[in-house]
Write a structure and sequence with these properties.
By secondary structure, the protein is mainly α. It is 67% helix and 0% strand. The protein starts with 6 loop residues before the first helix and ends in a 6-residue tail after the last helix. The relative contact order is 0.16. The N terminus is likely disordered.
């Protein structure tokens, strides 16, 4: 009678197949399983819908905006919402809706690039620190702790001030601020994965370290990484808005949700809609990413799925 695989071998993931003798694989949650788990969560689907709405607005918003982002109608300054101006106008007679649509692209661009840079650096540092251990792990962790000790907004302001006030430097500043959180998440996941049977099997057959990290370790830590990236995307949008509110980053008259709130702050009593519209957009975007991140966490973690 043919015996089945041993429990240790039967739990190996697909990434270890072909790199150790007798290695079988059990698949991680598939795409269909994740989508099915997400569809069962109303809050997660609400977050996905909000994120999708703002993503579409960022991509096609400038093309469908009724007016240009800097086009002024001096005779319609501080005009209340109407059929002609659905979200009203600001103190210069600019259409708030048009500026919101153009500002969505900037906010999402900053969020995507900043999270991409932070994620790349955090993944590389976390993989090296978690797998190597020893003094290298201690040194990198201490470095990230030093960065993490500073308040995020103050550290971002300091970086932008040193490098110069520009949108590119705002992206770099936000990326530096959020790199330690990515590094911590990846390092913790690597520490849990490196002692598993399939990694030890790859080491025993002499697989080089870069191949072990790329083929065996990284594919099995993507679940917490995806969740963390989703949550930090919303935080990056909020950070960009906070810096723009302080006059850093995207320079006027180019639209940015944070700068729109800042410039309309002095007209709250006369024209509250000029600040309420961009403020609501910021809140909804961050809420959408938070709800989506929580849903992805529940869908990708088998311990939280019923």
């Amino acid at each position: 009678m043919t015996q089945g695989p041993t429990p240790a071998i039967a739990t190996l993931p697909a990434s270890a197949r072909g790199h150790a003798p007798g290695v079988a694989a059990a698949r991680l949650p598939g795409r269909r399983g994740v989508l099915h788990a997400l569809r069962r969560q109303r809050l997660a689907m609400t977050g996905a819908a909000i994120v999708a709405f703002f993503a579409v607005a960022a991509m096609i918003g400038p093309a469908v905006a009724p007016h240009g982002p800097t086009e002024q109608f001096s005779q319609d300054r501080l005009r209340a919402p109407s059929a002609e101006y659905p979200f009203g106008t600001d103190e210069f007679g600019r259409d708030v809706l048009s500026r919101l649509l153009h500002g969505a692209r900037i906010s999402f661009q900053v969020g995507a690039i900043a999270v991409g840079i932070a994620g790349t650096l955090g993944v590389l540092l976390g993989l090296v620190a978690g797998y190597a251990g020893g003094w290298l792990d201690n040194g990198l962790t201490l470095l990230m702790d030093v960065v993490f000790a500073f308040p995020p907004v103050l550290l971002a302001i300091a970086i932008v001030t040193m490098r110069g006030n520009s949108l590119a430097n705002v992206m770099i500043a936000i990326a530096v601020v959020y790199t330690p959180t990515f590094m911590r998440v990846v390092r913790g996941a690597v520490l849990a994965v490196r002692s598993t049977a399939y990694v030890e099997a790859a080491v025993s057959v002499g697989a080089p370290v870069p191949r072990i990290l790329a083929r065996h370790v990284f594919p099995n830590i993507t679940a917490p990484l995806i969740v963390h990236a989703s949550l930090n995307f919303g935080f990056a949008v909020l950070a960009e808005a906070a810096l723009a509110f302080l006059g850093l980053g995207n320079k006027p008259p180019s639209p940015s949700w944070g700068s729109m709130v800042s410039t309309s702050y002095g007209f709250l009593q006369l024209a509250p809609w000029a600040a309420i519209a961009p403020g609501t957009a910021i809140a909804l975007a961050v809420l959408g990413f938070n709800l989506l991140g929580d849903g992805l966490r529940d869908a990708l973690d088998p311990r939280l799925r019923s």
